[in-house]
Amino acid sequence: MAEFHNDDAVLDIHDKPKPAAWFGLSLQHLFTMFGATVLVPRLVGLDPGIALLSSGVGTLAYLTVTKGKIPAYLGSSFAFITAMKMLMGSEGYPAIAQGAITAGVVYLIVALIIKKNRFGLAR
Q1: Which of 46, 68, 73, 81 has the smallest set of CB atoms within 10 Å of its CB?
Q2: In terms of one coarse class, where is the protein primarily found (predicted)?
């Protein structure tokens, strides 16, 4: 893959922030993650503990698959709240689980297509 350098960046891709900045950024990430991971289940009537456990397991699986090259946290998404609220009122938990699994399978298929074709990305 081609090397990329941004002269305007405060930190480059491989740079590490100073401890004080790192701590501040970590707190920012924690509050953002916690807000989304707890608020989304609360809004649709699900248990936040399940969301925290699921996001932790999903994140560990993701880091294992990517070998830690892409540090990311996988958590709740506000994108599906409307569908989950609708399903919770009419169909219940099984329909929400089926929707989540279906979305995951679609994401996996799209990721495999992108990996296979690269769509003009440097090889």
Answers
A1: 68
A2: membrane
